[in-house]
Design a protein that fits this description.
heterodimer; A: Conserved hypothetical protein from pyrococcus furiosus pfu- 392566-001, ParB domain; 19 helices; 5 strands; B: alpha/beta; 42% helix
């Protein structure tokens, strides 16, 4: 009697198809990751820096246990997926660019390459190639400047990093920064001095100081404005675009960080609050999370998102009445019906008008009585 | 109680490998864990009727009605057994003809999925008992499901059928552009008879295959004449012979599904 055939080879096709499907899914997520994390501009800058550092002191191989993450890394959003992606690329292609590290005693602080470092730890690597940079005067400030003008940093991380820096410079808390910024900008707007402030964004620090002094603002307000200008940030756009990020409800913050929700969408969705909808916090959060889900899944545009929000709002605020344009128009025409016009109109038409007005008056009275 | 509705399609590319047995006993086991379960019989052979002790249903009170063009949401579910949380949407022989109609109907492959979306079911878990031939009805099942279970008898016919099925399921999920794709939750060795050399041998080889496929392998369900006696009486084994050792064979899968459903993973 012959031997029983084994079942393994029967599955060759299935295994291949399965592997292929998985590989395609991985590649797709890799492409998405690359698209969302790479800004050619920043990469170029870092490349230049890397080359300079290699020329100065050469590359070295560092023990990754001696490298410490930058505690001031403004990119707080580092997803496990993005680390996984980098780990795969390290495994396949090896380390392409060296880390940039700063010597600190007998150890190092990471300046660039946090994800590569974390991925290497995951892979069980013991060393990485790195170049050392001299200790910047203020590491947080250096990395902050690199990052706040890096378009891919999400607006929430950006806002947090900036407020942290401004708070350190001015000694103000987040609430104070927010209120003071609003007050001073409103005043400048009233005094029509906004364009003067805007012109200072790209000016030399000396001119910025003179310019702000000329605006005749309070001492702390001056410090506040200068701390934004020093980071090449427009205080007005800071107030309009970034400060609101900080007061977003936690579900929206989480969606920005973990699921790539965009800032403008988050602001539109924030309208769905307990206060606006006149419902409990819990209910409001539920509506918001549902809407957020839809926005992300269907990749809605900002205006579509606003439409969705209006729709949801109208579900809760149905009974609200609003002023009608028709009524305003009619009232205006009646006002224009002067005595001279009436005097020159024939009686039949005047009687018809009188009846109509009496009818409408009765309808208005009954509407008023029932509301 | 479940956050998301789980829809599990039980598929096999061969007849008589224990699809309906798995569907029925799994449904009962989930019902015992206080999940409401909807069993849908997509097989024109309507074996589910026998297992649930139900008289045959007219087409208008069967799944055939649900897939017909003028369905308006009145799902024809009937209770399966006394004191159980399992309900059945019965099958009908006309399903083989409906399968042909679906081929030319717009969104034919998504008909069942569309029905479930437009007229949502209240059950925590829905189990789809599929026909043995891979075709339009099974494509509907895949499009509507959130996970697949593949019973596999340890004989060459069923084994190679399962291999083809896995490949087919991946291709279909791709063609239908399902997002997310329903994962194969596991292979379930069924009708296992430890006295047969071929069963023992293939059971030994299966873990290797499953790991290469990155698909979970569940513990085997034994073959027992008591399954036949139970179904002849229209009962699941757990009700017919509660102390029978084979009743325990469904526990791991049920536990796993409960966990997945509670975590919202399927």
């Amino acid at each position: 009697m012959g031997k029983l055939p084994t079942i393994g080879q029967r599955f060759t096709g299935a295994i291949q198809a399965n592997d292929q499907a998985q590989r395609i899914a991985e590649l797709q997520s890799e492409i998405e990751q690359l698209r969302s994390t790479q800004s050619p501009n920043l990469e170029e800058q870092l490349e230049v820096l890397r080359r300079q550092l290699i020329a100065q002191s050469g590359e070295l191989e560092v023990d990754i246990t001696l490298v410490n993450p930058n505690p001031h890394q403004p990119r707080q959003t580092i997803t496990q997926e993005s680390i996984q992606t980098i780990a795969r690329s390290l495994e396949q292609d090896g380390q392409i660019s060296p880390l940039i590290i700063v010597q600190q005693g007998s150890e190092y602080v990471l300046w660039d390459g946090q994800r590569r470092w974390e991925a290497a730890k995951k892979l069980g690597w013991k060393t990485l190639r790195a170049v050392t940079a001299p200790m910047p005067e203020n590491l947080h400030r250096q990395s902050l400047l690199t990052f706040i003008h890096h378009e891919d940093l999400n607006p929430l991380d950006k806002a947090e990093a900036i407020v942290k820096e401004v708070s350190a410079l001015t000694g103000l808390g987040f609430e104070e920064i927010s209120t003071m910024l609003s007050t001073v900008l409103r005043r400048l707007e009233r005094q029509q001095q906004m364009h003067q402030l805007t012109n200072l964004v790209t000016a030399h620090p000396k001119l910025q100081l003179q310019g702000v002094k000329a605006l005749d603002v309070g001492e702390i307000e001056e410090k506040l404005l200068l701390s934004f200008l020093d980071l090449a940030l427009n205080p007005a756009s800071m107030k309009a675009n970034l400060m609101p990020m900080l007061s977003l409800p936690s579900d929206l913050k989480e969606s920005i960080r973990k699921r790539g929700l965009r800032g403008a969408h988050a602001l539109a969705l924030a309208v769905l609050s307990a206060k606006t909808l006149k419902i409990s916090e819990n209910q409001a959060a539920k509506e918001r999370i549902k809407a957020t889900q839809q926005v992300i899944e269907e990749a809605l545009t900002v205006s579509k998102t606003r439409e969705l929000v209006t729709q949801i709002k109208s579900k809760y605020l149905k009974s609200e009445t609003s002023s009608s344009r028709d009524v305003t128009a009619v009232a205006r025409s009646i006002e224009r019906l002067g005595k001279s016009v009436l005097a020159n109109t024939d009686t039949e038409q005047l009687v018809a008008l009188k009846t109509l007005l009496q009818q409408k008056l009765a309808e208005i009275e009954s509407t008023l009585a029932s509301s | 109680m479940a956050k998301h509705k789980a829809v599990i399609a039980i598929l096999a590319n061969a007849g008589g490998v224990g699809k309906t047995t798995l569907a029925v006993h799994l449904a009962y086991e989930l019902g015992r864990r206080n999940f409401s379960v909807g069993l849908i019989d997509l097989d024109p052979q309507r074996a589910l009727d026998v297992f649930c002790g139900l008289p045959s249903a007219a087409a208008e009170f069967s799944i055939a009605q649900v897939l017909s063009k003028d369905f308006r949401g009145n799902w024809p579910f009937v209770s399966a057994w006394e004191n159980s949380k399992v309900e059945v949407c019965q099958g009908h022989p006309i399903m083989s003809k409906i399968a042909d109609d679906l081929v030319i109907r717009r969104r034919g492959e998504y008909t069942l999925a569309d029905r479930m979306k437009n007229y949502p079911l209240s059950h925590d878990v829905v189990i789809l008992d599929c026909p043995a031939t891979l075709g339009m009805i099974c494509e509907n099942a895949i499009a509507a499901s959130t996970g697949l279970l593949v019973p596999i008898q340890l004989e060459m016919k069923s084994v190679s059928g399962a291999a083809d099925l896995v490949q087919w399921a991946i291709a279909i999920a791709d063609e239908l552009d399902l997002e997310p794709r329903p994962p194969i939750l596991g292979l379930v060795p069924s009708l296992y008879d430890h006295t047969r050399a071929i069963h023992r041998q293939y059971l030994q080889q299966l873990p290797e295959v499953a790991s290469q496929l990155r698909i979970k392998l569940y513990p085997q369900i034994r073959d027992s004449s008591e399954f036949k006696n139970a179904s002849a009486n229209g009962l699941p084994l757990q009700k017919y012979r509660p102390a029978h050792p084979a009743c325990k064979d469904f526990v791991t899968i049920a536990n796993d599904l409960v966990k997945l459903v509670k975590e919202g993973k399927i």
